[in-house]
Specification:
One of its GO terms (cellular component) is cytoplasm. Residues 896-1012 are annotated as: Disordered. The chain has 1173 residues and is α/β, with parallel strands linked by helices.
């Protein structure tokens, strides 16, 4: 609706020259020109000039002047003189549109209005008024009581206004043809509704109505009546008189019993919608036929049997998600049958439904198909997936009408031979027990475009034709998870129209080069999980290829794919690449390149520069630590993750993964799925770990801190969370607060459809709750009671199928952010944890997911495999999976193995030179889901940094005897001797916990050397101030008897070499500050040695973190802290100063560290003087 704010112009009323020009405020509002006194503005005397049908003309005798005239015999005229040419042209243009209008539609929905704007009442020609989603009041001068002033109003929408009572004033607007009062908590409908004789559409959905007045039956023109989601227990008798209404829209009521004879009396009803009613029985007490009903929707009820044989003209039936064991129908006119997710063992339809074209019997208990199915002459689509079928009738497959057959997830051992040419276009036979396919499949089914035979036992595939010339039109072929070898490559050549080929997880040793070159139309190729050593160079002939996925092979040479003009995604992770030969320039289309898991791959700085434009680049670096070394210095778990965008243009999922979380042996993992939006998952990825950290400081009760974490994260979404939302899953591994060294617990919290599954003794243990309307009966009832409108696809207001999400605030109270919380004690039988989104677990069952991960040792490769399987099984959406490998001992012991060192303990502090060697399982790996993260792997773990070297704020007592470092012991296995209590590690006072501290946009092109970082072959030597402990995520109880020492290994401290300290800052994507010291972060940005550590910045500003990337400098110390967050330590003279050893004392410090540890009891508790350079 057009509205120009009031401006003051010279105005003259009427055409007579006797009228004088005067200054007036002029407003063009809707379809009216309003002229008012300047002094009193709109509160004074106003002149309203309706413009619809009138005239707007230029006055030639006066500059910048327009004449406005209304229509009709009582027409009035106003002359308005404008100050500038711009005003004149703008008003002329807009007024010309107004005078040509014939229908006036005003949309003021979602404006938080409490009254009807006054200016609307001067637009007498308004016919359509939308006031939906406001806070309208009935009383007042501008309340709804004034609506009858709209004398020409035909359509009025007052839904979602929380009125509480039916506004009787609308019954005085006799011109109404359409009225919507949905979701207003109405209890009754007044008898005055009978006045609206012109009413054709009445929407009363989402209220508390249980009856209707008899006067409603007098509305002879009413043809649409919405009564869904009310409190009706029976079909209102007044409907028998509404002869023009052809649809019974009563979904979401309380009708538990349906009598077909009552429907027979309502001869005008053709469409019956009784979804979500708790319907338990459908009675047919008489032999009277129900002739008029053609469509019935009985989804999501409690029916255990259904006999609709008396509904003889039924064309479409929806009865999904009941508990049906038997189903009996009339087949005279039946065209479409949807009966999935029941307990059907057979379906009885008589006579044979010769008009049937579409039938869905998936997710039932069918052991065989009824004979009448093969006799259907027009059936085009048949879905019998997830049943117990052991064979398919030959007559069915040879049907001359069947175009789409879905028979996956059954027990089929063979497919019948094809006798003649058939029109079949799509065939899905995945997850069966097939050892072979019919020899004539491809040259008898010439229209076949889609074939999925993944997860079978195929050792070969049939030829594409009987001769060299092939007529195949196959476009998509999925062969993943079979026993195929390289010989199948020759049989693929005939499918020259092939666009998508998935042949992952087979036994391919190679792919014939000459055969690949003939697949010129290929767009997507997945060769993962085979035994390939190379990808043929002839792949360059596939000019349309945009996706190449070949992870988990033995590929050593980078394929020649970067010259392809349309290449977008290349995944060569988990291979054996050593180097990459690159062209001079990369294609602009390349968006994602994954090279993680190639332990021998070394990239030059020039190569990294060439990759700089890629949106998502995932890399890691050569590892030299053995598995034993890695585990001994690591946490009892490590993780891997994978994300795939599928056929979407954007990735709307993200991952949070922290193997070392907090100030102890803890971990945090999370996944977030935004469905269609990427903003909310990214925000949650960056903030949720921070929020959990803060909440852990306030409560140790799992249900409390997890609920608060989700609610706070929900609030932090701000405006982005108003209309956008995401499913979220958060897993927190920790000790019991009362027993910090005892058993580990796993606390899981989730909203939406992300799920967590624990593998215990080889069996899946679901830990999460799926909050979707289809899967959760309690949530469905809650949403129904709050009177939400649930659409036919089971979505709240047609937006989301989830009843609990983070975000989507405008759907409150139907969609809530409160999570499901569950705590599971971990034991030695727990092998791994799988986190996945809805798309993953819709295609991969819990049991298959467990078997899949058990067969793959590397958690990253296991996560990759899960996503690849889901794609090959037909998933087109974003997929994400996180696999956490658990190494929990029988007593959850966190003791360290005994390691003797040659380094003596000494009281003087000194910076320690650390030579960092990257490892595959980083004890402090911190990863998120979009790019590269800066990760330094250090042999020095958090609990190994000794306070004797890292603290100068308290006195120490060197112990006598050899320089043996006491082991770190858990509470179940305490050390036999303790040297002295009260050791602590100082924390930098400037450290703050915020995701804003992460630097996501560092430049990787600068080449200034980094001071203190020495490149030495495959190692990265970094000078670290061990006084600078890692940023601790939360405060814990003081560990008064825990000796925090620095473990020294020969490979870590060559020749006992020590150097001056250089501060290093390393930031990671989720806000965890890992090694904070005084050096400015800008210095790191400029260094080629660390620029690649800071991750590849995505277009949305987030950073991806693979599990094993460039070396993580871990100087994370387990410093004992009070609940308040301060150390148990004597006050310092200047807490902002860094503790630096002056050059004159370096030699003394070195000698003392090599000497014997002697206990100096007289110095206990006295503050040590600070050394400042």
């Amino acid at each position: 609706m057009t509205s120009f704010s009031g401006s003051v112009f010279s105005v003259r009323k009427g055409k007579s020259q006797l009228h004088k020009w005067a200054e007036r405020q002029v407003i063009l509002c809707g379809t009216c020109l309003i002229v008012a006194s300047v002094k009193d503005s709109l509160t004074g005397k106003m002149h309203i000039l309706p413009l619809v049908g009138g005239k707007v003309e230029e006055v030639k005798r006066r500059q910048h002047c327009l004449m406005f005239s209304s229509a009709g015999s009582q027409a009035q005229t106003y002359f308005v003189n404008f100050d500038t040419l711009a005003d004149y042209q703008r008003w002329h243009r807009q007024a010309s549109k107004v005078v040509s209008q014939t229908v006036s539609l005003v949309d003021l929905s979602c404006y938080s209005l409490e009254v009807v704007p006054e200016y609307l009442f001067y637009s007498q020609d308004i016919t359509h008024l939308n006031l939906r989603h406001n806070f309208m009041s009935l009383q007042g001068p501008e309340g709804l009581l004034n609506l009858p002033r709209f004398s020409q109003l035909k359509s009025l929408n007052l839904s979602h206004n929380r009125l509480g009572v039916f506004p009787e004033c609308v019954c005085e607007i006799l011109t109404l043809t359409e009225l919507s009062l949905s979701c207003n908590s109405l209890q009754t409908v007044p008898v005055q509704i009978g006045n609206l004789q012109s009413l054709q559409t009445l929407s009363l959905d989402g209220n508390h109505l249980s009856s209707l007045p008899e006067e409603l039956g007098g509305l002879s023109q009413l043809n649409s009546l919405g009564l869904s989601f009310n409190n009706f227990c029976h079909i209102p008798a007044v409907l028998e008189r509404l002869s023009a209404v052809d649809k019974l829209a009563m979904a979401g009521n309380r009708v538990e019993s349906l009598e077909l004879c009552a429907l027979a009396r309502m001869s005008h009803l053709k469409n019956i919608d009784l979804r979500l009613n708790g319907l338990r029985c459908v009675k047919s007490e008489s032999l009277e036929a129900v002739n008029q009903v053609t469509q019935m929707d009985l989804r999501d009820n409690c029916l255990d049997s259904l006999d609709l044989s008396s509904v003889c003209n039924l064309e479409t039936l929806h009865c999904q998600r009941n508990q049906l064991g038997t189903l009996t129908l009339s087949g005279f006119t039946l065209r479409t049958l949807h009966a999935s997710s029941n307990r059907l063992t057979t379906v009885n339809i008589y006579p044979v439904p010769n008009q049937l074209t579409h039938m869905d019997l998936s997710q039932n208990l069918l052991e065989y198909l009824p004979d009448w199915v093969c006799d259907c002459r027009k059936i085009e689509m048949l879905d019998v997936t997830h049943n117990l079928l052991s064979e398919l009738p030959s007559r069915l497959l040879n049907s001359l009408s069947l175009r789409k057959l879905l028979a996956g997830n059954n027990r089929l051992q063979r497919v019948p031979d094809l006798l003649d040419h058939i029109p079949l276009e799509a065939l899905d036979l995945q997850h069966n027990k097939l050892a072979e396919l019919p020899e004539s499949l491809f040259y008898k089914a010439l229209n076949l475009k889609y074939l999925n035979v993944s997860a079978n036992a195929l050792e070969s595939i049939p030829p594409s034709s009987q001769s060299e010339e092939s007529l195949s039109t196959l476009q998509e072929l999925y062969l993943t998870g079979n026993n195929l070898n390289e010989n199948c490559g020759a049989l693929l050549v005939g499918h020259q129209n092939l666009r998508v080929l998935h042949i992952a997880y087979n036994q391919l040793l190679s792919f014939p080069a000459s055969k690949l070159s003939k697949l010129e139309q290929l767009e997507e190729l997945n060769l993962s999980g085979n035994k390939l050593k190379t990808i043929p160079s002839t792949v360059s002939s596939c000019k349309r290829l945009h996706t190449l996925i070949a992870h988990s092979n033995h590929i050593t040479v980078f394929p020649e794919i970067l010259n392809l003009p349309e290449i977008k995604l290349v995944d060569l992770s988990c291979n054996e690449l050593t180097e990459i030969q690159l062209p001079d320039s990369l294609p602009a289309t390349l968006q994602e390149l994954d090279l993680t898991g190639n332990s021998s791959l070394m990239l030059e700085h020039k190569t990294l520069n060439l990759f700089s434009h890629i949106t998502t680049l995932k890399l890691d670096q050569k590892s030299t630590t053995t598995a034993g070394d890695s585990l001994s210095a690591s946490t009892p778990w490590n993780h891997g993750y994978s994300e795939m965008s599928g056929q979407r243009n954007k990735l709307c999922v993200s991952v949070l993964a922290v193997d070392r979380f907090g100030d102890g042996m803890e971990a945090c993992y999370g996944i977030f799925d935004g469905d269609r939006n990427e903003e909310v998952p990214r925000l949650l990825q960056c903030t949720m770990g921070d929020v959990l950290c803060e909440e852990l400081q306030h409560s140790s009760v799992d249900n409390v801190y997890m609920c608060n974490t989700f609610l706070t994260s929900h609030r932090k979404l701000g405006m982005a969370g108003q209309k956008l939302g995401a499913s979220a899953l958060l897993c927190y591994i920790h000790h019991e607060p009362s027993d910090p060294g005892g058993y580990f617990n796993l606390t899981v919290a989730n909203v939406g459809t992300c799920q967590a599954v624990l593998c215990r003794d080889g069996r899946p243990v679901p830990l999460s709750k799926v909050y979707s309307l289809e899967n959760c009966t309690e949530e469905m009832e809650r949403v129904k009671l709050s009177k939400a409108i649930i659409t036919e696809d089971n979505k709240v207001s047609g937006v989301t199928c989830c009843s609990r999400l983070l975000g989507c605030s405008y759907l409150s109270p139907w969609v809530l952010p409160k999570p499901w919380v569950h705590t599971e004690p971990l034991c030695s039988q727990d092998e791994f944890l799988i986190l996945g989104n809805r798309a993953l677990f819709e295609r991969v069952s819990y049991q298959e997911a467990v078997f899949t991960v058990q067969a793959v040792q590397d958690p990253r490769a296991a996560a990759k495999k899960l996503c690849s399987l889901a794609q090959s099984y037909g998933c087109k959406d974003n997929i994400e999976a996180v696999v956490v490998s658990l190494h929990i001992s029988e007593d959850s012991c966190t003791c360290e193995p005994q390691v003797t060192t040659t380094e003596p303990r000494g009281p003087p502090p000194a910076p320690v030179h650390v030579s960092v060697t990257p490892g595959p399982t980083d004890p402090a790996t911190l990863s998120s889901s979009s790019g590269i993260v800066s990760e330094f792997n250090s042999e020095t773990s958090a609990s190994e940094v000794g306070s004797e070297a890292g603290s100068t704020a308290s006195d120490e007592h060197p112990s006598s005897g050899p320089a043996s470092r006491p082991e770190r012991r858990c509470s179940l296995h305490p050390a036999t001797t303790l040297s002295h209590p009260g050791l602590f590690q100082r924390q930098p006072s400037s450290a703050t916990f915020s995701s804003n501290q992460s630097d996501n946009g560092l430049d990787s092109d600068d080449e200034a050397p980094l001071e203190g970082v020495i490149s030495n072959g495959s190692k990265l030597e970094v000078e670290v101030d061990i006084h600078c402990c890692a940023f601790q995520l939360r405060s814990g109880a003081p560990e008064s008897h825990k000796d925090l020492d620095l473990e020294k290994r020969g490979s870590d401290y060559p020749n006992g070499k020590m150097r001056r300290q250089n501060s290093v800052v390393v930031s990671a994507t989720n806000g965890c500050l890992l090694a904070v010291c005084g050096r400015e972060i800008t210095d790191l940005k400029k260094s080629p040695s660390t620029c690649s550590l800071f991750g590849k910045k995505l277009s949305n500003g987030s950073v991806v973190a693979p599990e094993d990337s460039h070396n993580l400098i871990e100087v994370a110390l387990e410093a004992p802290k009070k609940k308040s967050g301060y150390f148990t330590a004597p006050a310092q003279q200047d807490p902002e100063d860094q503790l630096i050893v002056p050059p004159s004392l370096e030699q003394e410090v070195r000698e003392q560290l090599r000497g014997q540890n002697t206990l100096v009891s007289e110095n206990m508790g006295e503050p040590r003087s600070q050394f400042i350079t």
